[in-house]
Amino acid sequence: MMAVSAATLPVGAEWSYEVKWDGYRAQAVKSGASVSLASRNLKNITRQFPDVVRAAASVRAKSAVLDGEIVALDAAGRPSFQALHHSATAGLSVVYYAFDLLHLDGRDLTGAPLDERREALRRIVDGSGVLLSDPLPGTPGQIADAVRGLGLEGVVAKRRRSTYAAGRRSDAWIKVRYAKHQELVIGGFKPNGTNFDSLIVGYYEGKDLLCAGKVRSGFTPRLRTQVFASIRDLQTPRCPFANLPSTRAGRWGEGITAEEMQTLRWVKPRQVAEISFAEWTRDGSLRHAAFLALRDDKRAKDVVR
Fold first, then answer.
1. Where in the chain is the domain with CATH 2.40.50.140?
2. pLDDT average, residue stretch 72-81
3. What average pLDDT does this structure show over 84-94?
4. Phi/psi of residue 235, each to 5°?
5. Closest C-alpha among 39, 31, 95, 40 to residue 59
6. What's the rounded Cα separation, in Å, for the pair 231 and 269?
7. Spatial distance between the Cα atoms of 149 and 259, rounded to a whole number of angstroms
8. I want to staple 75 with a disulfide (CB 3.0 to 4.6 A). Which of 58, 91, 168, 227 is the partner?
9. How confident is the model at residue 80 (pLDDT cuts 50, 70, 90)?
């Protein structure tokens, strides 16, 4: 089940509010002593997160399907999506915040109200290594201020009586993002001597891939090599962006001219990256964009502004 984006949180007693964790959405499936993890696009990620597997194995149930977020925390307990890709670094830990329970000991809970699913989830994760993504106290305004103040990504509002609408986006869940970053599709790059100087990224609007500009910042030498390895074999002579060349350079220099396009290299739009930025410009480009990480849990065709 996925949330609908909004600019403000809904208000009313029928709503509850949770932190929007900055990590990998994942379902943990426990069957006896066995635990497997699946990403949002059903990729098996069990081997990537052994700490989460161990935590889920301690859940007090013979069989269960949990929905939640895999999150990397620094020494101060702050979540960081970028840190999730460098979890071997000292001082970082990887945890699993569970926020829903879909099956329990053979019983399908997807038709039960959210409050009932949460109560069952609370009982089985108590004492395990799985963390509970609790509803937040306070008014929507207080919650928004607190989440912004802590530098967290955002808030998800959920209808307390809603059932679990598997496989689709539902307005029973509404997400409000305060941090300015999102996933974008890599459609090209500006080459340098060994790999690339900048990436060309975009998002889908209907069937069209629209260019959102260049990403030059955020790369360590190791990360640059890793990213280039993921796109090197996807090169194609055809530009995948429907809105290039730009008619003129953007106000902040993000525009791409016909002349500059001759120096660029294009790739099939399959790789997704998480990008931070200061703002969207009026011509639809990113200002001060920086690379955070590759997103192998997101399909390119699902990426929209």
1. 181-302
2. 81
3. 65
4. -65, 145
5. 31
6. 9
7. 44
8. 91
9. confident
With beta carbons less than 8 A apart as the criterion, state whether 202 and 187 touch. Answer: yes
Residue 265 CB partners (closer than 8 Å, separation 6+): 188, 189, 190, 191, 196, 235
| CATH number listed for the domain at residues 1-21+134-179 | 3.30.1490.70
Count how many Cα atoms sit within 13 Å of the Cα of residue 187 in the half-sphere of its side chain. 26
Query: Is CATH 3.30.470.30 the classification given to domain 22-132?
Result: yes
CATH placement of domain 181-302: 2.40.50.140
Is 180 noted as a catalytic residue in this protein?
A: no
Tokens standing for residue 43: 């990729």
Which structure tokens are listed for 39? 């990403």
Q: Is 103 within 8 Å of 94 (Cβ atoms)?
A: no
Instruction: Give residue 254's pLDDT band: very low, low, confident or very high (50, 70, 90).
Output: low
* Given the residues 20, 30, 175, 298, the one annotated as active site: 20
The token duo for 84 is 């999730």
